[in-house]
């Protein structure tokens, strides 16, 4: 057997086996290179804070560290898993975490003020993957249209090698960070001294959170929901946070988990069948007339 026909046979076997393997991927996420990073970050003096980016193999990490006081510094660490599979509708899959390590500041120092998170995921499937659309945005723009909007921002590269634009979720979060004075009274976020700190993020394009995307996979309609929970690594949507603010107590660590959940949506398929039925009726009426 020459190499070419061997490759063909291998591909054919893989196609045959695919629907029967447990790892058949309904939806697959790949982190786009050069994304999953903090960028354009400033402290309260207007000085840049440069992120440390590290490829950890299975995941990619971007970290901000500020207010170093003799070895105790606060930090935000974004860890994005490079390759994630959803094999079953309904089961949430973890995409990334942001960990806030919140130190109590003893002396007035510059603290994290604002910045951006630039994220990008390519979507693929073992089955046919139709055009995805953002449900909550006016006119339900396609994934590609929103990705082009993000790429048109002066804060993102105009070209993103490795991005499959029509099948990518590109996101640019603008965030503000409020490291409160610990002896403030009353504390801005409610708790008694030392006062909690808060992180608020907004997506470019006013995309509401959770992000909801309509997808057609293998001719079936699904809703992809990307949502966050705080300190809950189980992916329970009941614990999803619906606003864009998360608060960390002083001296503690908060983890913001980002999950993707794919839900089967039966309605459009039934409508399709109904549509076919109506077409059939129309055709019969023409025949009868
Ligand atoms: Ca603090
Ligand atoms: Ca504080």
What would you say this structure looks like, in words?
It contains three helices and 15 strands. It has one domain. The N terminus is likely disordered. Strands 3-4-5-7-15-13-12-9 form an eight-stranded antiparallel sheet, with helices on one face. Strands 1, 2, 6, 8, 10, 11 and 14 form a seven-stranded antiparallel sheet that branches. By secondary structure, it is α+β, with helices and mostly antiparallel strands. It is globular, with a radius of gyration of 23 Å.
How do the strands and helices of this protein lay out in sequence?
Elements: H1 3-17, E1 27-31, E2 37-43, E3 52-55, E4 59-69, E5 72-81, E6 83-86, E7 93-101, E8 112-124, E9 133-134, H2 143-151, E10 168-178, E11 197-203, E12 211-217, E13 220-230, E14 245-248, E15 253-264, H3 267-288
Antiparallel strand pairs: 1-6, 1-8, 2-8, 3-4, 4-5, 5-7, 7-15, 8-10, 9-12, 10-11, 11-14, 12-13, 13-15
The structure holds calcium ion (CA) (2 copies).
One calcium ion binds at residues 179-180, 182, 194-195, 197, 250.
Name the descriptors.
289 residues; alpha+beta; 8-stranded antiparallel sheet; 7-stranded antiparallel sheet; 3 helices; 15 strands; 16% helix; 40% strand; globular; disordered N terminus; binds calcium ion
């Amino acid at each position: 057997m020459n190499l070419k026909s061997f490759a063909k046979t291998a591909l054919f076997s893989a196609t045959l086996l695919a629907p029967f393997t447990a790892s058949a991927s309904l939806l697959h996420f790949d982190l786009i290179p050069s994304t999953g990073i903090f960028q354009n970050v400033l402290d309260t003096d207007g000085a840049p804070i440069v992120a440390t980016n590290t490829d950890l193999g299975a995941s990619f990490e971007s970290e901000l560290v500020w207010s170093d006081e003799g070895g105790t510094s606060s930090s935000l660490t974004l860890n994005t898993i490079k390759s994630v599979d959803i094999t079953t509708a309904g089961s949430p899959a973890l995409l990334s975490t942001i960990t806030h390590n919140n130190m109590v500041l003893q002396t007035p120092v510059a603290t994290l003020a604002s910045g951006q998170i630039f994220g990008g995921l390519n979507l693929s499937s073992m089955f046919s993957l139709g055009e995805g659309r953002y449900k909550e945005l006016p006119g339900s723009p396609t994934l590609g249209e929103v990705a082009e909007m993000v790429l048109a921002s002066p804060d993102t590269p105009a070209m993103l090698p490795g991005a499959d634009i029509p099948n990518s979720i590109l996101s640019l979060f603008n965030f503000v960070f409020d490291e409160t004075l610990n002896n403030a009274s009353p504390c801005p976020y409610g708790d008694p001294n030392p006062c909690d700190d808060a992180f608020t993020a907004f997506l470019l394009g006013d995309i509401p959170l959770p992000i909801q995307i309509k997808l057609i996979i293998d001719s079936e309609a699904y809703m992809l929901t990307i949502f966050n929970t705080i300190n809950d690594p189980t992916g329970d949507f009941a614990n999803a946070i619906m606003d864009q603010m998360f608060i960390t107590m002083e001296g503690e660590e908060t983890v913001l988990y980002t999950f993707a959940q794919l839900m089967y949506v039966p309605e459009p398929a039934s409508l399709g069948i109904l549509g076919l039925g109506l077409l059939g009726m129309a055709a019969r009426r023409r025949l009868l007339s």
